[in-house]
């Protein structure tokens, strides 16, 4: 049994005539009759009473008509749903965002995308970059945004943002008036970092180690505003993204923008290598890439 048999049978039932049905679907009457007869043979019942002037549905024909119409309707709904997905009228995907990155870059991007595609649902999962990578590997989320670098054997990556980290000091710090600071000058400072599940933690530690020392970590947090308050309370220093530093009160902390060597803070949208990316997710990647290309 195939969908053509069902649709041809429904045409005959609707017109109560093989000749009218054949004209309607532009199929020869013998071919149409043969297709309906093959359906009857397959089901083992007579669907149409052909002995009268008009073709009349038998009891079995009425039953099959009801179910056949449901099948055809389901097929049409399926095709429409697929078209909606392909044309991004509907869809959904799960996006992993570290809190710092999400708050800094994506509220406006998500809002603008939703305005263009109101029926595409984005489920946001807030986690650190390392946890996002693990969730992608496990197939629990579809896309993630992380700080580069990323393991290119495990993930596909689309770079979107290039930024640097700035040094944030208490106002009482001896280097508060410096316009430029070398990382080696911070060797004995107490560092306040994001927790280890955040890629920013590794970026800072790796940069310091390349300069010959491991930073002395006084505190760790998952929240940039708590790190900021600790700096205000003269509990240490930190290296934070430019976007966060732009929010800090210059009356409470000092931001030094020139660090030698500079520490890059480059972002990318990533997904599991070889993993399926839905039309909705592909559309969002292209949209976000376009937004950040214009901003950079």
From TrEMBL:
Keywords tagged on the record: DNA-binding, Transcription, Transcription regulation
InterPro entries: HTH-type_LysR_regulators, LysR_HTH_N, LysR_subst-bd, WH-like_DNA-bd_sf, WH_DNA-bd_sf
PROSITE patterns in the cross-refs: HTH_LYSR (PS50931)
Domain HTH lysR-type: 1-58
PANTHER family: HTH-TYPE TRANSCRIPTIONAL REGULATOR YBHD, NITROGEN ASSIMILATION TRANSCRIPTIONAL ACTIVATOR-RELATED
Family to which this protein belongs: Belongs to the LysR transcriptional regulatory family.
Protein name: LysR family transcriptional regulator
Organism: Paenibacillus mendelii
Lineage: Bacteria, Bacillati, Bacillota, Bacilli, Bacillales
């Amino acid at each position: 049994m195939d969908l053509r048999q069902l649709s041809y049978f429904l045409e005959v039932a609707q017109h109560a005539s093989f000749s009218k049905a054949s004209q309607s679907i532009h199929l020869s009457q013998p071919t149409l009759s043969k297709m309906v007869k093959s359906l009857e043979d397959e089901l083992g019942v007579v669907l149409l009473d052909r002995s009268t002037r008009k073709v009349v549905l038998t009891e079995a024909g009425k039953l099959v008509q009801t179910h056949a119409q449901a099948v055809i309707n389901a097929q049409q709904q399926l095709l429409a749903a697929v078209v909606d997905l392909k044309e991004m009228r509907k869809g959904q995907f799960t996006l992993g965002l570290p809190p710092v990155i999400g708050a800094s870059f994506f509220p406006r991007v998500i809002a603008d995308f939703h305005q263009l595609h109101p029926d595409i649902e984005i489920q946001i999962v807030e986690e650190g970059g390392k946890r996002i990578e693990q969730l992608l590997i496990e197939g629990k989320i579809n896309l993630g945004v992380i700080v580069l670098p990323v393991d290119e054997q495990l993930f596909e990556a689309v770079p979107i943002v290039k930024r640097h980290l700035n040094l944030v000091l208490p106002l009482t710090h001896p280097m508060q008036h410096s316009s430029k600071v070398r990382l080696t000058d911070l060797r004995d400072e107490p560092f306040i970092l994001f927790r280890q599940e955040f890629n920013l933690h590794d970026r800072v530690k790796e940069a310091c180690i390349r300069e010959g020392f491991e930073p002395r970590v006084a505190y760790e947090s998952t929240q940039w505003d708590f790190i900021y308050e600790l700096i205000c309370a003269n509990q240490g220093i930190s290296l934070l993204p430019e976007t966060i530093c732009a929010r800090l009160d210059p009356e409470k902390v000092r931001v030094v923008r020139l660090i030698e060597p500079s520490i890059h803070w480059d972002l990318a949208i990533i997904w599991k290598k070889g993993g399926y990316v839905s039309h909705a997710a592909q559309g969002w990647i292209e949209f976000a890439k376009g937004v950040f290309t214009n901003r950079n």
